[in-house]
Amino acid sequence: ADFLFFFSGLIGRSWAMVFAAGGFKVKLYDIAQQQLMNALENIRQQMKEMEKLGVLKGALSAEQQFALISVCTDLKAAVEGATFIQECTPENLELKKKIFGQLDLIVDDNVILSSSTSCLLPSKLFTGLKHVKQCIVSHPVNPPYFVPLVEIVPHPETDPSTTERTYALMKKIGQSPVKLNREIEGFVLNRLQYAVISEAWRLVGEGVISPTDLDLVMSDGLGMRYAFIGPLETMHLNAEG
């Protein structure tokens, strides 16, 4: 069976639930046993709650999904049999590099090493690793259980098959993957978001509109359109293309 493994913070727990919903066996790894116990309890409660509300993802029951998740505090045992490893530690370059350095020494040539980072470039994270061809960033949008987008960002030396396999896996678990052809500061989601935020500050700062009304422009205007179609498709559909 496919094993996938994670770290057990907020994003790690959310990823674990997404993969379990897709029917995959998941191993949660962390250095603290108590943290893992808390994570399991939290996941169990969330799954039961969502099942009750009728919003549980996937074809399996909450109980069946929960049974797919196990925990582990031994890194070597955790990677045993894994085909895909998703790192979900805090946004700290040194910490992430240390973890990928450790993984690099114990993984085989088939496993994909993936990071959840939202802002650290693959070239900063993976350069110099033996298994750099198998390394990739899969940046989820918080919370990944309800927001399907995943930005897939390769290292300059990432093998195309690593990108393809990651893309196919994300599709299989019901996420909406997008491929970046090369790395760029901020990736794509945040670059678009920063452009909107900086204009929002300007409009409010210059006294054009109140903060409350500015937020309404997005929530009751632009955002409603963008929930269905993107800016390029909008332009294409408008006024004879």
TrEMBL record:
The record marks H139 as: Important for catalytic activity. Keywords: Cytoplasm, NAD, Oxidoreductase, Phosphoprotein. The keyword Phosphoprotein applies. It is found in: Cytoplasm. It comes from the Eukaryota. Residues 8-181 form the 3-hydroxyacyl-CoA dehydrogenase NAD binding domain. SUPFAM superfamilies: 6-phosphogluconate dehydrogenase C-terminal domain-like, NAD(P)-binding Rossmann-fold domains. GO terms for molecular function: L-gulonate 3-dehydrogenase activity; NAD+ binding. GO terms for biological process: fatty acid metabolic process. InterPro entries: 3-OHacyl-CoA_DH, 3-OHacyl-CoA_DH_CS, 3-OHacyl-CoA_DH_NAD-bd, 3HC_DH_C, 6-PGluconate_DH-like_C_sf, 6PGD_dom2, NAD(P)-bd_dom_sf. GO terms for cellular component: cytoplasm. Residues 186-239 form the 3-hydroxyacyl-CoA dehydrogenase C-terminal domain. Its EC number is 1.1.1.45. Belongs to the 3-hydroxyacyl-CoA dehydrogenase family. Homodimer. This is L-gulonate 3-dehydrogenase. It comes from Tychaedon coryphoeus. The lineage of its organism: Eukaryota, Metazoa, Chordata, Craniata, Vertebrata.
